[in-house]
Automatic annotation (TrEMBL):
The keyword Disulfide bond applies. It comes from Halcyon senegalensis. This is SCN2B protein. The gene is Scn2b. Gene3D superfamilies: Immunoglobulins. Keywords: Disulfide bond, Glycoprotein, Immunoglobulin domain, Membrane, Signal, Transmembrane, Transmembrane helix. It is found in: Membrane.
Length: 211
C-alpha cells in the first residue's frame, strides 16, 4: 500500500498492514533458477517494487554468494551511495553491475562463468522509508554443454503418422457406409420387385382378383 490515499478502504487496509508488519516489506523479484554455459556471460536479474522514489543517500543493496545451503554468505557487491565490488577471489573482476536502482533494477552480469560459480546468489534491497529489507534468491546452474535443442522432426513424423492413420480410418468408414447404403438400396429394390411379382399370376398375367 502506497501512502497518499485517504479513502476508508485504504485506511482500513493500512490499519491491517500496521498490525502485520511483515506485509510492509517491499517485493523483490528474481528467477528461481538460471542456467549458464561454462565460459559464457550471464545476467542475474533482480528487480523490486517500492512505493518510494530511490534516493542514493538512503538506498542500499547487497549481493551475496552462498556455495551451499549450509554455507555462510559472502558479500561480493553492494550499493552505498555508489556501487562497490567486493573482489572475492572466486569472482575477481568478472562481476559487473548492469542494473539501475532508480528504475528498480539491481541486476548484475557475471562474466566468463566457471563451474565453481554454481551456488545461490542472494539479492537484498532496502529503500527507505520502506522499513523492511526485501530479499530474493537465484540458484545458478553451470552447464558444460548446451542443452539439446527440441527436435520437431519426430513430432512432425508422429503427427503425420497419426493424421495418415485417421485418414485411413475415415476412408474405411466411408467405404463401409457406402457399401451398406448400396446393400440397403439393393434390398429395397428386391422387395419392390417381389411386390410387383405378387401382383401377377404364375404366367405373368396381371391378377384380376375376385370379380
Amino acid at each position: 500500500l502506497c501512502p497518499g490515499s485517504n479513502s476508508p478502504a485504504s485506511l482500513l487496509l493500512l490499519s491491517v498492514l500496521v498490525a502485520a508488519p511483515t506485509a510492509l516489506g517491499m517485493e523483490v523479484m528474481a528467477p528461481a533458477t538460471i542456467n549458464a554455459l561454462n565460459g559464457s556471460s550471464v545476467k542475474l536479474s533482480c528487480t523490486f517494487n517500492s512505493c518510494y522514489k530511490v534516493e542514493n543517500k538512503q538506498f542500499s543493496l547487497n549481493w551475496t554468494y552462498q556455495e551451499c545451503s549450509n554455507c555462510s554468505e559472502e558479500l561480493f557487491l553492494q550499493f552505498r551511495m555508489k556501487i562497490m565490488n567486493k573482489q572475492l577471489d572466486r569472482f575477481g573482476n568478472r562481476v559487473e553491475f548492469t542494473g539501475n536502482p532508480t528504475k528498480y533494477d539491481v541486476s548484475f552480469t557475471l562474466k566468463n562463468v566457471q563451474l565453481e560459480d554454481e551456488g545461490t546468489y542472494n539479492c537484498y534491497v532496502l529503500n527507505p522509508p520502506d522499513r523492511h529489507r526485501g530479499h530474493a534468491s537465484i540458484s545458478l546452474k553451470v552447464l558444460t554443454k548446451e542443452p539439446p535443442k527440441h527436435d520437431s522432426t519426430v513430432a512432425v513424423i508422429v503427427g503425420a503418422s497419426v493424421g495418415g492413420f485417421l485418414a485411413v480410418v475415415i476412408l474405411v468408414l466411408m467405404v463401409v457406409k457406402c457399401v451398406r447404403r448400396k446393400k440397403q438400396q439393393r434390398l429395397n429394390t428386391d422387395d419392390q420387385k417381389t411386390e410387383e411379382e405378387g401382383k401377377t399370376d404364375g404366367e405373368g398375367n396381371p391378377d384380376e382378383g375376385t370379380k
